[in-house]
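Internal ticket - ligand job 636, xanthosine-5'-monophosphate:
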Amino acid sequence: MAVLWGGGCKPEGWAKLELSKQFVPDVVLNSFGALGRRGMERIAVLDSGGQYCHLIARKIRELGVYAEIFPVGVSPDRLRGHKGVILSGGPASVFGDASPQPNPLLFEAGMPMLGICYGHQLIARYLGGSVERGRTHEFGSATLRVRGDSGLFDGLAREHRVWMSHGDHVVSLPKGFEVLGDTSECAVAAMGHERQGVYGLQFHPEVVHTPGGSGMLGNFLRHACGCAMDWRPTDRAETLVRQIRAEAGGRRVLFFLSGGVDSTVAYALAVRALGARNVEAVYVDTGFMRDGETTAIERAFSALDLGRLRVEDASDRFMGRLEGVVDPERKREIIGRAFVDVQDDILSAGCYAGQDWILGQGTIYPDTIESGGTNASDVIKTHHNRVDRIHKLIDEGRLIEPLSEFYKDEVRDLGRSLGLPARLLERHPFPGPGLAIRCICATRVEGPETDEAIGSVAGRSGYSAFLLPLRSVGVQGDSRSYARLTVLHGGEFDYGRLLPLSTRITNEFRHTNRVAAALSPRAIEPRDWALKPATLTAARVRVLQRADRAVRDYLRREGLYERTWQCPVVMLPWGRVGGETLALRPVTSVDGMTAAVAQLPADGLFALADRLVGIDGVDSVLLDISNKPPSTIEWE
Ligand code: XMP
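stdout (structure tokens):
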């Protein structure tokens, strides 16, 4: 029996904790340094740079097998114990100079393997088949005709609607492979070596546009990999508790709670693992929180009976450092550092001095990937919990992140299994940097731009359009973009016309990555409006807080809160002399990785927009009508 204890700055605060040795041997290090349970069925998804990678991992988890993402070049040694490998698609061509390549030894490891799109072509090339450059791209729906009787299509129809997105294609098969399916444009749409359990699909089985795709992935897991398919995120709670004990290694854990789902679930797990006396919760009020948030969180926390919540008012410090900063990545970096500084101060002050404390965070899986967590994924936005100083804590073994392997909806399931209240688990996600990244800043006066090409595309659908010289973050072609906003106005408000038009504009014109429709006023004379210099000020944040509260109240009142994933309100320094604009960003999503516009009823939206225009200095209200991709949920 190992006995762990801490010193006693708080006499009552640190009981001896006995950690049974039996907890330790069944934990092993996995790819990201987190701990996984030996024997748990796992599938490795090798990332060649596609955002589709998360869809694959999520689909596999939904099918009941734990999936984790590795860079495509990972050493096969690190995949020992995995029951199979999936090579994802990606934006590169196998003929490109710097195209992501797998480790050749992977193909000698004898593991069941499925290649998707680019991964399908990699398998063909590495195993002795050949790939040719396509003269044109095949993009969109195709009909797959199944050939032969492969286990991959076991129990499935002989014809499938499948989603294609490729230029290159496989022209000759590796030895021992057979064609398992073709389409009118693609002779080797599916191939396989049945005995070795190695398959390639030119189309994407992971997307909704391939309705039979789950069945194919399920057959691969069941027949080729021999998976029992019985993994459920909630089964992991007890393993996580053991991991936390092992990782804490006798140190106490300080958690910074945001009041959101992730940090609360992570904290509740830590309390279950170490006891409330060994875990401390601090809530940092950055000054960029929602209206009334601090009081609401204190109240909700005391009802949970999980220990004491300490509130640290750091608003002056955050605002002081952000004064005059305009660039979004700089804002995120500064906020990340300020969080760590507040934490350092707390740790080095008073009763924490000299103690061996570590930090706990509620980081979830997508946070590690979207910030460039695997080699092939470009940095889209640096999440505040993945800045340099946090990396240093990770290197020093002073950070625990119990949820770093989970997607948001899995975290909610875990929270339910821990008995946390539904109202807390259903809260909309709120980013750590808070309203600071929803309050857009600018350095100079600029008028709107007309773009004839965009104007004429919009005109054909019955709308007028102009471009704002204001940039926001997007994700186009798997990498980050920072491009202009298109505003549509006039015309009838009709989602059936607006949404396809938004997609068309961002597909055809790469200098814009986001489209918004005017809600109030409905038509704008852009010459009378301008972008003006603006920085983060307490007064602007206050306006944003009022607007954010009004939007939240409206969503709750209309029964729309549970039906939307989030509805950020973004403030733009664009208006008539001195005025501002608010943009509403209602989205639906499963995990925040992709998102669709939440089509809120038009009448309610117009009434809401008219009310918002009454708030001090607000000249207009826009509705963001862009999906993710191409536009991230937050604008910065
Ligand atoms: P994006 O804007 O990248 O957002 O499409 C996806 C989800 O992540 C949230 N988000 C953040 N959460 N720190 C956080 O804790 C951050 O820096 C951050 N940036 C975005 C966002 O609100 C959405 O739910």
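Auto-summary: The mean pLDDT is 86. The radius of gyration is 26 Å.
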